[in-house]
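U., I forgot to send this yesterday:
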Amino acid sequence: MIERRPILDLISHLVLILGVLIVAFPIYVAFVASTQTATESALAPISLVPGSQFIANYSEVISKGASGNISMPPVGRMMWVSLVSALIIAIGKITISMLSAFAMVYFRFPGRGFFFWMIFVTLMLPVEVRITPTYQVVSDLGMLNSYAGLTIPLIASATATFLFRQFFLTVPDELAEAARIDGAGPLRFFKDVLWPLSRTNVLALFVIMFIYGWNQYLWPLLIATETGMYPVGIGIKTLITGGDAAVEWNMVMATLILAMLPPGLVVVLMQRWFVKGLVDSEK
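Result:
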């Protein structure tokens, strides 16, 4: 039995509240700046009282997407590119990883261990390491400024393959034998047995992979040479490259707030499954 101590509970809650305030304060400052005029948002120190330009600023960045002398596509367009890319990357990583882990665990073929370790070794070769040859291949295939170029080089995941393999190894062999006796083929066994058991793991990995895809910067910076294919991360960087005199910080902050909404909603809406997928041991 754990003894409850009010003083320790109070201290714990104070520490948690302080941590939340430290994390949330910069977000609040960005939100306040996004509701002010360009002149007010450039003042130092900035006012902590929300301004009166909330609707005007957000409407402008969503529909026009311009800041100072820099012409940008609408933020809505950039967020759409980021959303499509993040969904393709997340779903592609999970699909390929599940199928490859399924093959490694449930099929017997020569070199199975070798191929698994070759997949695992790719953890030491992220896109940043092999970016030049990867870019050359994508360019030769004519996939610049396309969703295929933004996503295909990123949809393989050795980490997810390893996690699914370790999970499949914990599934009792009796389930596979029972499915085989009932006449279920490999894909039927995968669909009716492994998929339901892996659902929480899939949802947990989806959150991680979606945020990974949404926050991509270096690879899209090379692939997207047209502003119409800019994800929101590159758009934000481009907005502030003209020097302080050309930057409307209220518009930049409005873009930042909008860019945080999709990954934030994914985390909030799926946090229960995310935590369960990481800690649940039920099979």
